[in-house]
Amino acid sequence: MLKILGKASSINVRKVLWTCAELNLPFEREDWGVGFQPTSDPAFLALNPNAMVPVIRDGDFVLWESNSIIRYLVSQYGGQALYPADPKQRARVDQWMDWQATDLNRSWSYAFMALARQSALHRDAASIAASCQSWTHFMRILEQRLEQTGAYVAGGAFTLADIPIGLSVNRWFCTPFDRPALPCVAAYYDRLASHEGYRLYGRNGTA
């Protein structure tokens, strides 16, 4: 059976859990990370030298990096509807997944740690303001995209790209700051709630 190593509160672990839900794929999960088994443990480092969750073990196959993991799972376990074979359609999915992992993630990192997690290491007011401003900029890009598609980020159908984007949108709504009204993003947030995986691992009170 597929094994997932990582605590369930991690946004990157939740990408994998939600993907498994979409695929009806059974798994076993072990708690690793802050508050649980330390990822500095030599046994974990042997699987991922970066000491980061998640890691999966699928038989004798070991893989880390959350977006790589979810791409593997849909390719291995019949998720073609989530990750199309057509090169242009697949590239569109990859584009938005990579955007979430780079531009969007970098924008909200400081503000989220300061305002949602109340991190003592993230107390600089100027840095919080700059992060909120950058985050809002990228969320407006998402708003424009969803206005174009009227549904999901890669087009009219739910795809793998909506898993990392949807989890980031959950953080947007769970972080207390003065957010602008983004009606297409709000409708998207509600639309994703039709997916049990999102209700279990995304919009479940955990940011």
TrEMBL record:
Top-level class of the enzyme under EC nomenclature: transferase
| Boundaries of every GST C-terminal domain copy | 86-207
Which organism is this protein's natural source? Achromobacter seleniivolatilans
Q: Where is the GST N-terminal domain?
A: 1-81
Gene Ontology molecular function: glutathione transferase activity
Q: Does the keyword Membrane apply?
A: no
Q: What is its EC number?
A: 2.5.1.18
Q: What is this protein called?
A: Glutathione S-transferase
What keywords are assigned to this protein?
Transferase
Listed InterPro entries: Glutathione-S-Trfase_C-like, Glutathione-S-Trfase_C_sf, Glutathione_S-Trfase, Glutathione_S-Trfase_N, Thioredoxin-like_sf
Q: Does the keyword Thylakoid apply?
A: no
Give the matching CDD domains. Answer: GST_N_2 (cd03047)
Xref: PROSITE patterns:
GST_CTER, GST_NTER
Pfam families per record: GST_N_3 (PF13417)
